[in-house]
Amino acid sequence: MEHIDLCKIRRGDYVGKKVAVCGWVRTSRDSKNVAFVELNDGSELNHIQVVFEKADFDAHTLDGVLNLGAAISVVGKVENGLKAESVEIRAEKVELLGASDPSYPLQKKRHTMEYLRTIPHLRVRTNTFNAVFRVRSELSYAIHKFFHDNGYYYVHSPIITGSDCEGAGEVFKVTTVGFDKTVKSEDEYNAKDFFGRPAGLTVSGQLEGEVMATALGKIYTFGPTFRAENSNTPRHAAEFWQIEPEVAFADINDIIGIATDMIKSIIGHVMDNCRPELEFFDARFENGLIAKLQNVVDSEFARVDYTDAIEILKKSGKTFVYPVEWGLDLQTEHERYLTDEYFKKPVFVVNYPRKIKSFYMKKNPDGKTVAATDLLVPGVGEIIGCSERENDYDKLLAEIKARGMKLSDYENYLDLRKYGSVPHSGFGLGLERIMMYITGMSNIRDTIEFPRTKDELR
Is 69 left (phi over 0), alpha (psi -120 to 50) or beta? Predict the structure, then answer.
């Protein structure tokens, strides 16, 4: 008999019908005459109760079936449950598909998030992470849908690159050459390596995305990126997924509009398709989460010049750990004040100082700032970094030289400015950052299946 997903039984007209289901035992209760199992197969957040009348089974049939974590298959009749609109299955047959040792770590008590990070192979079986990764799946689909519906092409940028897009040097090296005490210089070491030159894991697909946008017009990448950044904070990971659209013939104002539309669209999609999960997060992790998300969908995003943001922070009366001065980057505490207390909604901070932003950003006429913006959201801080790209060959060349960057790494990128260059803009959205915002998870490690952070590789 073919088994049915539990979500279909709950939503369909199965009462009075015999069904076959499979799943894992989440909780169980045992008494002299009857036993109960809460079964979950991953198809939805809610469990379905299975009732075992012990008189219907041989003495040892239920051995191991009630153990937490056990995988079982059940054939039985669907009946109305005691709670309104609930159903349960009265078991007629049961098979133990995968036994679970009594030492199963996920017992009935509520475990800390820190403990669950030590068992990433099992934590997805908790209600919390079952909900997190279901939302992550639906959010990823919503992102692809937004760009597909708006005429973008999905392109795949390389994971192994020969340049550091951000120019910050936080790159994981890729090499096939082990320790060799006979190598006398870096050049000799690189000559022995697979590519004959230094290579690393990508920190961004933007540079390649710009290449594709100069022919296809509107593109986006969606893939893993890597930062060898020694930042052991709740907002940083060494491996994360990033969405990076690039749009030809678009200036900074255009890309701000696109970013706004995308954020509203994907949050609205998750609200429409993951209501039980959001209600779960609202009740257990961030009270008012659903109202916050609805406010994002319904409200206009604020916009403030970086210079004005600095003045707002200085006049706030707050004592910040990090200094507030023009020319310094905004820290999380500054971003949180602007979003959580001052604007009380998402805000674009625009026109950052040139020296604290990347080399490829277009200089503003004042010579001190660039056409760049970060989207800050309450509770998280920055989730999107946007900019108009510098499309003037001479200005870009001068910036690369001024920053002491290796010119040979950016020859093809510079070439784009020689052959039909156009104004173009793009942004990067960290999937895990927007996941934190949508779910109320306070640590980025709890939004990705197998988090990679400093000194942590499981």
Answer: left
Calculate the CA dihedral of residues 456, 112, 272, 156 and round it to 10 degrees: 0
- Three-class SS state of 243: strand
- For residue 226, the surrounding DSSP H or E stretch is strand 218-226
What does residue 378 show for φ and ψ, rounded to 5 degrees?
A: -60, 140
* Neighbouring-strand partners of residue 51: 36, 90
**CB 161 within 8 Å of CB 413:** no
How far apart CA 346 and CA 78 sit, in angstroms, is 47
Q: How far is CA 250 from CA 67, 166, 246, 372, in A?
A: 59, 21, 9, 13
Residues 83-95 have pLDDT tens digits of 766 899 999 999 9
pTM of the model: 0.92
Please give the Cα distance from 242 to 212 (Å, whole number). Answer: 17
The H-or-E segment that residue 192 falls in is helix 186-192
Cα(123)–Cα(127) distance, integer angstroms: 9
Neighbours of 319 (CB within 10 A): 6
In one letter, which amino acid is 228? A
Task: Return the SS3 of 102.
Answer: coil
Q: Is 117 helix (H, G, I), strand (E, B) or coil?
A: helix
Residue pair 115/130 in contact by the 8 Å Cβ criterion: no
Closest CA to 433 of 233, 273, 252: 233
The CA-based angle 7-11-14, given to 5 degrees, is 100
Q: Tell whether the model's pLDDT for residue 442 goes beyond 80.
A: yes
